Amino acid sequence: MSKLKSAAIAAFLVAPFAAQAEPTGDADAGEQNFRQCASCHGVESPDGETFHRLAPTGPNLWGVVGRQAGSYEGYTRFSSSMVEAGEEHGLVWDEESFVAYLQDPSGYLREVTGDSRARSNMNHRLRGSAEDLYAYLAQYSAD
To answer: What are the two backbone dihedrals, phi and then psi, of residue 49, each rounded to the nearest 5 degrees?
Structure first.
């Protein structure tokens, strides 16, 4: 087997693990930043343990790290652009995509989908470090 082919296969096998890199932010600072999110989002584990009460507006953020965009079971209020970004463009929430989205939700979806009219239902832009918020939410997953 050629060295190039071996390297390509190795890169393919390692890619899923690279996507799960350690967050660069400060989870404690992210907990403080989450206050901005709490009016629309909550964090509740699949077994019902509540870390932040679920709010009626946005989806549960338990397991958001590594989740396909626009795909939380039982939540039906995602914008069509968000669903498209996940289903048709393969958008999965890793640190890079999460941070970019929080800086400009609709602008980011326009970039991902290539649709200049794409819109996010989330119109809030995070004040503070999105990396910290990502590190905080990374604690809440099945892994």
So the answer is: -75, 125
